[in-house]
């Protein structure tokens, strides 16, 4: 829902994604991993949406050894919180953090210098979400089919996040119109 909301509120991104879909996805054909691997802008849209609307409020880990963070010694067995929406809004990691800009994730963009560990919507390492690949595939396939067939609009107040163990939308007032 947050991806659709971001596309509805950013019609230029939606149009760019639609053009990529038209170019890469054959009409009426199944979508395999070879097709998905060519959908660079789609992946950028999803990453940018996770940046703007994190799925979870934070990632936390208990340190297994002493480390130094920003000059502070942090002892083993300390629980460390990485607050996703704070990191995602820092201009030192994301220039113009208030702007929805999927292009920042494209490797061919010379201005792209995103640090990979500033966005971990599924966690990382041995405790990474076991359903990550399935969730990403379903998200990509759903977005392709929706944007391929409909222009996504929005009516009413902007969507907000509510914490229900994971962040969820507080409303949906989408306006879908068929593409011709």
Automatic annotation (TrEMBL):
Keywords: Heme, Iron, Metal-binding, Monooxygenase, Oxidoreductase. The gene is LOC118425590. GO terms for biological process: lipid metabolic process. It comes from Branchiostoma floridae. PROSITE patterns: CYTOCHROME_P450. This is Probable cytochrome P450 12d1 proximal, mitochondrial. Pfam families: p450 (PF00067). Signal peptide: none annotated. InterPro entries: CYP11_CYP27_families, Cyt_P450, Cyt_P450_CS, Cyt_P450_E_grp-I, Cyt_P450_sf. Its cofactor is heme. GO terms for molecular function: heme binding; iron ion binding; monooxygenase activity; oxidoreductase activity, acting on paired donors, with incorporation or reduction of molecular oxygen. Heme binds at residue 129. PANTHER family: CYTOCHROME P450. Coiled coil: none annotated.
